[in-house]
Amino acid sequence: GQNIDQPTEMTATEGAIVQINCTYQTSGFNGLFWYQQHAGEAPTFLSYNVLDGLEEKGRFSSFLSRSKGYSYLLLKELQMKDSASYLCAAPNYGGSQGNLIFGKGTKLSVKP
Amino acid sequence: EPEVTQTPSHQVTQMGQEVILRCVPISNHLYFYWYRQILGQKVEFLVSFYNNEISEKSEIFDDQFSVERPDGSNFTLKIRSTKLEDSAMYFCASSGVVDRAPYEQYFGPGTRLTVT
């Protein structure tokens, strides 16, 4: 089966750095996604990792360790608009292409 | 930039009624999906569609649900007899890129379904 765990809520200060962790247990592995979801809106793609290591994309970076079943999303120079839920997701291994299993999301509040 | 669109943005219906939620995926995409998100809960996969047929469905996607791609652009989700617990935000998504898997999925803005 598939299980994805991430903290429910986090709070950080504008301009700071925050790391959102995700652990996963999957029967196989086919990469890990991070999505951002503002309240009442659709998830939007942030990153995809399939190999170990850090992938940097502007203020956002994502890290993966396959041996530990662990990923994190790093947000730098936080802005108020970064207040949102951050969803960790993995493809349903063994299913057809790309059906995503989502974690419950981490609600990030950025304060002035 | 191409985007997935969904209509209506909000649908209110009475229990037992049929509803059809509509989506227009990104035009050159090949895979289409429906997800739902009950308020305050996680996004849940319902069904995926490829090459004019269902490729996978979850336990949620029972006989009350059906999907169709009636023409070259629309992708619909029908709920035959709605229940109170069907109240949720329904997201359509699409993805392409045949030679790489899995695919980045683009989500539509969602349809908020309220069953009374």
Molecular structure report:
The complex is a heterodimer of chains A (112) and B (116). Chain A has 112 residues and is mainly beta. Chain A has strands spanning 3-5, 9-13, 18-25, 32-37, 44-49, 53-57, 60-65, 70-75, 84-91, 100-102, 106-111. In chain A, strands 2, 4, 5, 9, 10 and 11 form a six-stranded mixed sheet that branches. In chain A, β7 and β8 form a beta hairpin. The radius of gyration of chain A is 14 Å and the shape is globular. Chain B is mainly beta. Helix content of chain B is 0%, strand content 48%. Chain B has strands at residues 5-7, 10-13, 19-24, 31-37, 44-50, 53-57, 65-68, 75-79, 88-95, 106-107, 111-115. In chain B, the strands form two sheets. In chain B, strands 2, 4, 5, 6, 9, 10 and 11 form a seven-stranded mixed sheet that branches. In chain B, a hairpin with a 6-residue loop joins β7 (65-68) and β8 (75-79). Chain B is globular and about 40 Å long. The termini of chain B are far apart. Classes of the chains: A mainly beta (112), B mainly beta (116). Chain A binds chain B through residues 30-31, 33, 37, 41-45, 48, 87, 89, 91-92, 95-105, and chain B through 31, 33, 35, 41-45, 48, 50, 55-56, 58, 91, 95, 101-110.
The low-confidence runs of chain B, each spanning 5 or more residues with pLDDT under 50, are none
Mean pLDDT across every amino acid position of chain A: 91
Percent in helix of chain B: under 10%
Q: Give the number of helices of chain B.
A: 0
Oligomer: heterodimer
SSE run of chain A: EEEEEEEEEEE
**Total number of helices of chain A:** 0
Give the overall shape of chain B, derived from the CA principal axes.
globular
Chains forming the largest contact: A-B, 25 and 25 residues
Largest sheet of chain A: 6 strands, mixed
Supply Rg of chain B.
14 Å
Distance between the termini of chain A: 41 Å
Number of strand segments of chain B: 11
Unreliable residue runs of chain A: none
Shape of chain A: globular
Portion in beta strands of chain B: over 45%
Output mean pLDDT of chain B. 91
What share of residues are in beta strands of chain A? Answer: over 45%
